[in-house]
Design goal:
The protein has about 350 residues and is mostly helical. It contains twelve helices and no strands. The protein has one domain. About 75% of the residues lie in helices and about 0% in strands.
Length: about 350
């Protein structure tokens, strides 16, 4: 996460990651699902996350080194966060079902091995960790493309194929598989971020006031266009145009979030940096906290299947991140593997 060999972090990327992580927690809290703002946020927020992941990808000297590097930093945390989640899953299953058999207990283990695959013999465990194996695959595919003479052409072909597969999956529901779905949906934005880094885009850090105003205008305009196109997207009956609009909406949202966060590049908050550093940990553990908070409030209020208003979700998302901050400090010092670090 460092820039051009410098020890100073890329502050605007920390803002992007902290914002995206907060919105992810917000979207996972139980609330009315048909609201425009929730549909929009759930549809676009991961695109910016995968863009900056692609932007931060560094070239390696060999494909084997890449396999070892990203296997260690992504696949091992994937296993660990699912192992941490497993006792919680067992307790939740027992409370909801009243009993638990061997087959029930084994299914999430098989599901984890199969990368959060739901079937007759497997089920999701910590479903939100799908992004770790998906990100691993994106790194390896990008590594392969970057080593080819016509790598950018291969990226374009793969992007078109993935968009078509995503559209087909939305239409036919042939693969209700969260890791696969996330991979084909977001690969193009990982490619996009990596190509921006290769072409030295967004390198300049010290900007004039005129450049600041320009980036602010681009960011605001991009978000407005994204919101307007999203309204068209959710009301568009022509399926092909509906899918095309989805990617255009996400493209403008990426530009909006990136440019607005670049406007904050000179504004440094320790909290933002910590959330960015702890992105993987928050991803891996926040569903446990959501479940515990929901269970506690349901018992206290005697409300079954509790839901929250948007401002309650925002407060709870910030509370959950605050609760996890000490764990970020702890893992940073003693268990860096949980942050994808050696």
């Amino acid at each position: 996460m460092y820039f051009c060999g410098m020890k100073e972090r890329i502050n605007w990327i920390d803002w992007v990651k902290a914002f995206c992580m907060t919105v992810v927690v917000f979207c996972h809290l139980p609330q009315q699902e048909d609201t425009f703002y929730l549909q929009y946020l759930a549809s676009v927020i991961l695109s910016s996350f995968f863009f900056v992941s692609g932007y931060l990808k560094k070239p390696t000297t060999s494909y084997i080194i890449s396999l070892k590097k990203y296997g260690y930093s992504l696949l091992i945390p994937y296993i660990l966060y699912n192992a941490i989640y497993y006792p919680y899953w067992l307790a939740k299953f027992y409370i909801e079902q009243g009993s638990i058999g061997i087959n029930d207990a084994v299914k999430p283990i098989i599901g984890t091995i199969l990368l959060q695959f739901n079937s007759d013999i497997s089920c999701e465990l910590n479903g939100v960790t799908w992004f770790l194996p998906a990100l691993f695959l994106m790194h390896m595919v990008t590594e392969f493309c970057n080593r080819q003479k016509h790598g950018k052409t291969i990226m374009l072909i793969l992007t078109i194929i993935c968009i078509m597969l995503y559209g087909a999956n939305k239409y036919y529901h042939y693969a209700p598989y969260i890791t696969y779905h996330g991979f084909i949906r977001c690969l193009c934005f990982f490619f996009m971020g990596n190509l921006y880094r290769q072409n030295n885009k967004f390198i300049r850090q010290n900007r004039t006031y005129l450049q600041f105003k320009k980036e602010l205008a681009v960011g605001l305009l991009s978000l407005i266009i994204s919101l307007l196109l999203f309204y068209w997207h959710i009301h568009e009956d022509t399926f092909v145009l509906h899918i095309i609009l989805y990617y255009i909406v996400n493209l403008f949202s990426v530009y909006g979030i990136i440019y607005l966060c670049r406007c904050l590049n000179k504004v440094r908050f320790r909290l933002v940096t910590l959330i960015s550093i702890g992105t993987m940990l928050i991803f891996g553990l926040h569903r446990i906290l959501i479940g515990l908070i929901d269970y506690t409030l349901e018992k206290a209020t005697h409300i079954f299947d509790i839901t929250y208003n948007w401002y309650e979700c925002l407060i709870l998302a910030l509370v959950i991140e605050a609760i996890l901050l000490p764990f970020i400090f702890l893992t940073k010092r003693h268990f860096p593997i949980l942050l994808g670090k050696k």
